[in-house]
Each structure stands twice: as C-alpha cells, then as structure tokens.
Design brief:
Length: 311
C-alpha cells in the first residue's frame, strides 16, 4: 500500500492560513511561496486511464443536502455531467489536469459516478487510523476506481487537523486489481479554522472576516476544497510515481504547489479575487452541476509552469 501519511512540508506562517496537501497527499496548513517556475516532473509511473468509477463511502452522519453538495461536485468532473456548467466551470478547471497526460502514454480518465455506501453507524468506531481508511475505501470498487471516503464532523482520523485535512493513496496490488482512494474529513466542529478557510475565521494569521460559503455549509464547502485538491492529486499522481515536485515522501502536486491560491492577486491570508453571488453574497470561483457554485484551488498549469486560476 502506498501510504498517504507524511510530515508537514513547511513551517506555519503567522501571517497566513494556507491549505495544501502532500501526496500520496494530504491537504495541510502550510506556508508555501513559489516565486520560480513550478516544474512538475513525471516519474514515469502508471496513471489512471479509461473509464474510472468514483464511488463514495459516507462514514458517519451526513444529511441529504450535504451529500448532494459533494455528489454534485464530483458529477461536475464526470464526462456524463447531468447539466451544462456556465463558465467559469468546474469542468474547465479540471481540464488543466488533463494537460499532464500529454507527456504520458495514458489516456486521460473518464470519470463516472459509481456507487454510494452509507455507514451512518460508524461500524469501525469514531477514531480511525490509516488502515481503517483503506478498509473503508475497499468497500468501493476493487479496480479501475477512485473510492472516496468521507468522514462526518464527529469522526476523528489520525492526523486530521494536526497535519492534514484530506489525503489520497492506493490499495496494494492484488488479483482483484488496484484502486486509488481519497479521504476527506468534515472540519466543521474539529478544525474549521484550519480546514474550512476561507469560509471560517482562520486559526492563525490575519483575522479577516470569513467569506460566505456558496452552499451554506462551512464544513461541507471546506470539504469540497480538500476533495478537489485530492482528486486532482489522484489523477496526476495516483500511485506515488506520477507527476510531482520534490521528494516522494513529501511531494508537491498540481494543487499543493498553489497552496492558498483561489483567485487572481492571492497572497497569504487572502484567497484572491473571487466571484460573489449577488443574491446570497457567497464567494466562489467555479460553477458546477445542477446550478451549484464551488471554490476550487488553483492548479499548476504544465504549459506555463505557474499557478492557474479560473477567470
């Protein structure tokens, strides 16, 4: 199994709340300033290719509306998205990841929504270790899949809040196949100031007013930010030897290298210039399926070796 645990890649800065992930990655609170071109090296490993099912394992109590927010986001990445997405869109954002495949022999994966597994009773308890996440992920498809484990706000996961907001990795090779997996936790009651920024008052740094979340749920809108980062990390570096910068033990990926950047003009403590819904006052940068609005992180564009934002 490729482990998704790693040490914090950089020192916390008092003037910023930056969320990032190491891969097989974790979205973390770190300081990262990239003034030089950001080169993502391809390490010649296998990439996801062809038709890939995205299966969701809901661990703990999630309301129907919370599940809809996350399901609609993932549907926005699918080749069979249920409705058109006005620009700037989640679909267009995801196409930046597709550019990485131009230097490999793999065909960019066509993501399709798969099964939903509900475990509202928390059958493995409310404190999970990494091996528990892999066990939960295995409830999805055994191969040609990204199995997404989502933990509720009262479920503790080793490293959650202290060093990561989400992670991704891969199952061991087996006769049944091999799947990639993603884990993201709901930070609403455990560490919203770390893992739900900019929709919550930051735990560290300048205390600017939090932004209004587009789906009215600080925890779940924070989860979407982490999930977006982890899905891109999974697509571009699924097995730990794909595209990344730096050491394999603490690599920077397409979203990691643009930590805390969501719009043009971003700087530590400021997410950048975002769109604002005139009706709700919510801040966002991408339109998704079924009329949803989301915040997605900047990605390193391999064509420019720089962080690319929508708009």
């Amino acid at each position: 199994m490729a482990s998704s645990s790693s040490t914090i890649a950089a020192t916390l800065v008092v003037c910023a709340l930056l969320l990032c992930q190491t891969c097989l990655a974790t979205r973390k609170l770190t300081a990262l300033v990239q003034e030089q071109p950001i080169t993502m090296k391809y390490h010649k490993g296998a990439l996801l290719s062809g038709r890939i099912a995205v299966n969701l394992v809901w661990y703990g109590n999630f309301s129907a509306s919370q599940r809809a927010v996350i399901t609609d986001f993932l549907s926005s990445l699918s080749t069979t998205a249920p409705s058109p997405q006005p620009e700037p869109s989640v679909a267009t954002w995801f196409k930046t990841a597709q550019k990485y495949y131009s230097t490999s022999k793999a065909r960019f994966p066509a993501l399709t929504m798969g099964a939903h597994v509900l475990d509202s009773s928390c059958s493995l308890g409310k404190r999970l270790r990494e091996k528990d996440l892999v066990k939960l992920a295995s409830r999805g498809s055994p191969s040609r899949a990204i199995n997404v484990v989502l933990t509720a706000d009262d479920v503790a996961v080793d490293g959650f809040c202290s060093s990561r907001c989400g992670s991704h990795g891969a199952s061991p090779r087996s006769r049944a196949g091999r799947f990639a997996y993603v884990w993201v936790g709901n930070p609403a009651t455990q560490c919203a100031g770390q893992c739900a920024w900019p929709y919550h008052q930051p735990q560290y740094g300048p205390q600017a007013a939090p932004l209004t979340p587009p789906n009215g749920d600080v925890g779940v809108d924070g989860m979407v930010v982490s999930l977006a980062s982890m899905v891109v990390g999974t697509v571009t570096n699924p097995f730990g030897n794909g595209f990344f910068q730096g050491p394999a033990e603490a690599p920077l990926e397409a979203a990691t290298a643009c930590a805390g950047v969501y719009g043009k003009g971003a700087y530590p403590g400021y997410a950048g210039s975002l769109l604002v819904d005139p009706t709700t006052g919510a801040s966002y940068n991408a339109n998704g399926a079924n009329g949803r609005k989301y915040l997605v992180p900047a990605l390193v564009d391999p064509d420019t070796s720089a962080c690319s934002t929508l708009g």
